[in-house]
Design goal:
The structure holds three protein chains of three kinds.
Chain A lengths: L1 H16 L8 E6 L8 E2 L5 E2 L1 H12 L4 E6 L4 H6 L5 E2 L7 H4 L2 E8 L3 E6 L8 H4 L3 E5 L3 H9 L5 E5 L2 H10 L4 E5 H9 L6 E6 L4 H4 L3 E6 L3 H16 L2 H9 L8
Parallel strand pairs in A: 1-4, 1-5, 8-9, 8-10
Antiparallel strand pairs in A: 2-3, 5-12, 6-12, 7-10, 7-11
Helix pairs in contact in A: 2-10, 2-11
Chain B lengths: L1 H6 L2 H20 L5 H39 L2 H16 L2 H13 L14 H5 L2 H26 L2 H9 L4 H31 L11 H12 L3 H31 L2
Helix pairs in contact in B: 3-4, 3-7, 3-9, 3-10, 4-7, 5-7, 7-9, 8-9, 9-11
Chain C lengths: L1 H7 L2 H7 L7 H35 L2 H16 L2 H22 L9 H27 L2 H9 L4 H31 L11 H12 L2 H30 L12
Helix pairs in contact in C: 3-4, 3-6, 3-8, 3-9, 4-6, 5-6, 6-8, 7-8, 8-10, 9-10
Classes of the chains: A alpha/beta, B mainly alpha, C mainly alpha.
Chain lengths: ~260, ~260, ~250
């Protein structure tokens, strides 16, 4: 009898869960990790932040029925190509390397990459200064690619699953420096938790690796969705929604050319 | 000769042909051009996986002996903590234990400023000591439970006989009790070690660069998803196969000298 | 109550763990519910695979037996984490492509269902071995007797083999259930919000790593201990009417 109940329950969940897709709902993938001030989970279980607001605004302007879907950052492109999500809007930079696998919409923000370290440490964002140090980066990011290309010869690169873990190990002193996005880091060093540390400067330009700003990623060839996202992004940049949302989170523009 | 004939049955030839076909298809249809570039990294990762596996199984087993003994015959003030330890280790996910050790302890460091000046600091900064500790405790927890059964399973009469001959308690333990308990658990030890092998990739989540982490690196650098994972699965199968063979030989030798 | 917490210095932790915001307790419990749902589904799905697998291994043809041997060997030799990644990313892709090729359009696969499938396939390999051993432990005379009376195979399985093997299978199955609950934690790596990922998110957002990891550990432990009690009763129930194996009834 026990067995039968388990059987029925399994079949029921399996069948109920795997229905055919409803209407044209677009699943926008974000990284399932706190990445303030862009995306973070609050204690009532909803995702909030600048990027979540932007997603909603872009979808409204582009006439898309969107649902924010958290997935693992480290497999976000695999999730996109595996059709678990339909678009990535998770602070993903538009790079040549990624363009080989997926397509991107136009950029909706662009910020430089910085090195952050303890206030007492004399560190500059150069290979010479980082020689012999341990540098933390998040996996599958432009920062990992950049650090591997520019710092790996002289420094030890330590790779974390989430940005927050890298921040945590900087605070704990297990890494000497981390490389990450300037806005996320500005928020981090201002917080109580990051008060130990400061931004040491912007890393040297390398557009091939660091890319041309952050855009929404879509599967190759899905031009209809890409056009709609582009239209949405253009609309909110034009009608001031982008600036309005930005002003709620930041004191200056986050669209550096 | 006999093994050879078993393989030559018609359906097995068909299965093997299908398998060879699958391998050829994989070799041609999938992308493997990334392999040369990542070979040095992969070998380093493989070495670290094996190293962690060997160290944690040996240390875990040594820790499991007192844990099993305490539970089997210890007084309550030894057996109760041992039992609680085994229950907690076996009752919670290893991933959670690893994160608790690494990030939980790490979150305390800023509150203890002198720790950065201490002699242990160079080790505390690395990830592998936490990985080794977590995996050792885990193996000890599971194996401690097995050892409890093994110690209880040793024939009482032999122990009584040794006692009657006036053998000191420690000699009795070393010469009679422990060897028989170990022989009792030997058939399960290979399986437990394979389980431990399968637990090693979890330490990649705390920045230890073992073979799984290398495959993640390939994925994040090249965006190739399946090929590194398939190769990784093959590597683990080969290691598991070697472990099985080693333990079988070991078991045969132990039983042969009886 | 509050005074006790205050004196123990646990007021902060209690606030963080409270069920209503700003506490994160509700998130943890939702994660636990997800974990249990997946563990339950995967265990059940694994049992179904295991039952067919065990029958296939014992009574199937040579090809079926070889294929099942490959399945159980491969699954048991490769780390669950690697299997989960392969099955999670490949699985949905393949299902969608098949469905599109057949003209059904895209299939919506929720995280829960994907988790159940992935862990179920892993569990199936272990279930196969447990159930095979249990079926073999049933005295062959009982099955032969039923056959001699002309009982059809399916009824034989339902009326004789399964009830008779249940007592042999229960300890192994109890172990598998515990593995299922703990393996759900691995889905955190693919970003599914079960208990471990919810815990990590709560810990990262509040910096209270110890509080949340210990709380999650306690939740897992409660599940383990409760399941232990339930399985002990099932085992006792399945042994009813059988002579005790251990000599005296304890």
């Amino acid at each position: 009898m026990e067995l039968k109940k388990i059987l029925v329950a399994t079949l029921a969940t399996t069948l109920l869960g795997a229905g055919v897709a409803s209407a044209e709902q677009v699943k926008i993938g974000i990284a399932a990790e706190p990445y303030p001030p862009f995306t973070s989970l609050n204690s009532s279980g909803t995702w909030i932040g600048w990027e979540v607001d932007i997603i909603n605004a872009v979808c409204a302007a582009g006439k898309l029925d969107c649902v924010v879907t958290p997935v693992a950052w480290d497999g976000i492109i695999a999730s996109l190509n595996g059709q678990q999500i339909d678009a990535i809007m998770s602070s993903m930079s538009i790079t040549e390397e990624r363009m080989k696998t997926i397509d991107f919409s136009d950029a909706y923000y662009n910020t430089p990459a910085v090195i952050v370290a303890d206030k007492s440490m004399d560190i500059a964002p150069t290979p010479e200064s980082l020689a012999g140090k341990i540098v933390g980066v998040q996996a599958s990011t432009i920062h990992q690619a950049y650090a591997n290309a520019h710092f790996a010869d002289v420094a030890e690169i330590r790779v974390y699953q989430t940005q927050d873990e890298a921040n945590q190990d900087l605070v704990a002193g297990r890494v000497d420096a981390i490389q990450a996005d300037s806005i996320a880091m500005a928020g981090f060093v201002e917080s109580d938790n990051g008060s130990c540390c400061e931004i040491k400067g912007i890393v040297a330009k390398d557009e091939a690796i660091l890319g041309k700003g952050v855009g929404a990623g879509v599967r190759k060839g899905e031009d209809a969705l890409r056009e709609k996202l582009n239209a949405g992004i253009a609309a909110i940049l034009e009608n001031g929604t982008h600036a309005e949302i930005t002003s709620q989170y930041f004191t200056s523009s986050i669209f550096h050319e | 000769m006999k093994n050879w004939r078993a393989l030559m049955q018609p359906h097995r030839i068909v299965l093997m042909a299908l398998f060879v076909g699958f391998v050829i298809w994989c070799a041609i249809a999938l992308r493997w051009d990334w392999i040369p570039k990542y070979t040095p990294l992969a070998l380093g990762g493989l070495w670290r996986t094996i190293w962690i596996l060997v160290v944690t199984t040996v240390m875990g087993f040594l820790l499991a002996i007192p844990l099993g003994l305490a539970q089997a015959v210890g007084p309550w003030y030894l057996s109760a903590p041992a039992k609680v330890f085994c229950t907690v280790i076996r009752g919670t996910p290893l991933l959670l234990q690893i994160w608790l050790l690494y990030y939980g302890l790490g979150s305390l460091f800023p509150q203890i400023p002198w720790i950065r000046g201490s002699e242990l600091w160079p080790y505390l900064r690395q990830a592998w000591p936490y990985a080794v500790l977590a995996l050792t405790l885990s193996y000890a927890g599971y194996e401690g439970e097995v050892m409890r059964g093994a110690f209880s399973g040793v024939n009482k009469g032999q122990l009584e006989a040794a006692e009657a001959f006036g053998m000191p308690r420690f000699t009795m333990f070393r010469r009679i009790w422990l060897p028989q308990a170990v022989r009792n658990v030997l058939p399960t030890l290979g399986g437990e070690t394979i389980l431990q092998l399968k637990a090693t990739p979890l330490v990649a989540t705390i920045t230890v660069v073992e073979i799984y982490a290398v495959s993640s690196r390939v994925r994040s650098d090249t965006f190739i998803v399946y090929e590194p994972l398939l190769l990784l699965a093959l590597v683990y199968m080969i290691i598991a196969g070697i472990i099985t063979l080693l333990f079988r030989r070991f078991e045969n030798r132990v039983n042969g000298t009886r | 109550m509050e005074l006790i917490l205050e004196t123990l210095g646990l007021a902060k932790s209690a606030e963080l763990l409270s069920l209503s915001p700003p506490g994160w307790g509700a998130n943890l419990l939702r994660g636990l519910a997800n974990s249990l749902q997946i563990a339950f589904g995967a265990f059940g799905f694994g049992l179904v695979i295991g039952l067919f697998g065990a029958y296939g291994k014992l009574y199937g043809g040579v090809v079926v037996r070889d294929l099942l041997a490959i399945y159980t060997t491969v699954i048991r030799a490769v780390p669950e984490l690697v299997l989960i990644l392969i099955l999670y990313y490949v699985g949905t892709d393949v299902i969608n492509q098949v469905s599109q090729a057949m003209g059904y359009g895209r299939v919506e696969i929720s995280g829960v269902v994907a988790g159940i499938w992935v862990l179920g396939i892993v569990q199936g390999a272990y279930s196969t071995e447990v159930l095979r051993g249990a079926i073999q432990a049933v005295p062959p005379g009982q099955i032969e007797a039923a056959r001699a009376f002309g009982m059809p195979p399916f009824m034989l399985m339902r009326r004789v083999t399964i009830p008779a093997m249940l007592s042999f299978a229960t300890p192994g199955l109890a172990n598998l259930w515990l593995i299922a609950t703990k393996d759900t934690a691995l889905l955190a790596i693919v970003g599914f919000s079960e208990l471990t990922l919810e815990t990590r998110q709560a810990a990262a957002s509040t910096r209270a790593y110890f509080t949340f990891f210990l709380a999650a550990g306690a939740l897992y432990l409660i599940v383990t201990l409760c399941s232990g009690a339930v399985f002990a009763r099932i085992e006792k129930w399945s042994r009813r009417g059988q002579p005790s194996l251990r000599g005296s009834n304890k």
